[in-house]
TrEMBL record:
Transmembrane segments: none annotated. (6S)-5,6,7,8-tetrahydrofolate binds at S113, L114, L115, P116. Pfam families: Formyl_trans_C, Formyl_trans_N. This is Methionyl-tRNA formyltransferase.
């Protein structure tokens, strides 16, 4: 059948889903409804903020459903009234069977990895952190298990040395648009053969769990290339970080960079690192030791050389290139990075 005759229900919340929704509408596909998260308080004023997908759906003149509970009878009834042929999910909540099984052709999800690798909430971050040189996007049919449904289609992308989580996000978002529309066309044409994931060797798979603050702490005892990949994989958000510790006895005034008070044991603020390079070297220094010329460069000792950060952000301060940071931080050598 003509793919543009399919009655499509689109489900998503963040920016990552918006280009695909806009492309479907621009391409003449029949999006009969959009499901997204309820408006939530945000910002200092705690005013209600709508999701990126809701904003786009309103601009496109599409009906919007915002269920608090996906099993609520009123939501299920409203969804059924749309008579969906196909469901499309991009960055949304886990769906109950009553929802994902409702469309007669099923519901497929767009995931930002080459499944079955990197199942989970943070596939873009973990692919870079783990030093992968290739990733991609996958469409797959939803079932009872998270990210384990039958694979429909994939598109591969290289991970370049200069990529971080932010740039790769943009590339995968764009690649996802083409894959979503291609998947819709193939489903409508009946020429797609889903590939089940249960045949994958689970021992060879890398997960992509949600990332919490403590997961972002840098381990300076690791090899330098792993540290650089770790920083890239968390930039620009949530950002890799480290404690910044004043070496005991080096400062008489008890202050940390920027004039903040240090702790009794020489504790300073935390510092986020957004970009870095690695230089191999034998130095015999404690990991986290700082070497700086006080003007243009900071070097941080790691297991097999030096990490040379490009942009830093001290707690409570602006994100700055190292050269600018050092204009107000002349005694960087009196600190070390780490616990």
């Amino acid at each position: 059948m003509d793919a543009r005759q399919l009655r499509i229900v689109f489900m998503g919340t963040p920016e990552f889903a918006v280009p695909s929704l806009r492309a479907l509408v621009a391409g003449g596909y029949n999006v009969v409804g959009v499901v997204t998260a309820p408006d939530k308080p945000a910002g200092r004023g705690r005013q209600l903020r709508e999701s990126d997908v809701k904003t786009a759906a309103r601009e496109l003149g599409l009906p919007v459903l915002q269920p608090e509970r996906l099993k609520a009878p009123e939501f299920v009834g409203a969804l059924r009234a749309l008579r969906p042929d196909l469901g499309i999910v991009i960055a949304f909540r886990m769906l109950p069977e009553v929802v994902w099984a409702m469309p007669r052709l099923g519901t497929f999800n767009l995931h930002a990895s080459l499944l079955p690798q990197y199942r989970g909430a943070a596939p873009i971050n973990w692919a870079i952190i783990n030093g992968e040189r290739e990733t991609g996007v996958t469409t797959f049919l939803l079932n009872h298990e998270i990210d384990k449904g039958a694979i429909l289609a994939q598109a591969r992308l290289p991970i370049l040395p200069q990529d971080n989580a932010g740039t790769l996000y943009e590339k995968l978002m764009t690649a996802g648009v083409a894959l979503v529309t291609r998947t819709v066309e193939r489903i409508a044409a009946g020429d797609i053969a889903p590939v089940e994931q249960q045949y994958a060797d689970e021992a060879t798979l890398r997960p992509a769990p949600k990332i919490f603050k403590e997961d972002c702490r840098i381990d300076w005892t690791l090899p330098g290339r792993r540290i650089v990949d770790f920083i890239r994989g968390l930039a620009p958000y949530p950002a890799a970080w480290s404690d910044l510790i004043r070496e005991e006895g080096d400062r008489k005034d008890g202050t940390a960079p920027g004039g903040e008070s240090g702790g009794a044991a020489g504790d300073g603020p935390s510092v986020k690192i957004f970009s870095a390079a690695f230089e191999a070297a034998a130095h015999g220094l404690r990991p986290g030791t700082v070497a700086s010329d006080g003007r243009t460069e900071i070097r941080i000792a790691c297991a097999d050389g030096w990490i040379i950060p490009g942009e830093l952000q001290l707690a409570g301060k602006k994100r700055l290139p190292v050269r600018e940071l050092l204009l107000g931080w002349r005694d960087a050598n009196q600190y070390r990075f780490g616990r």
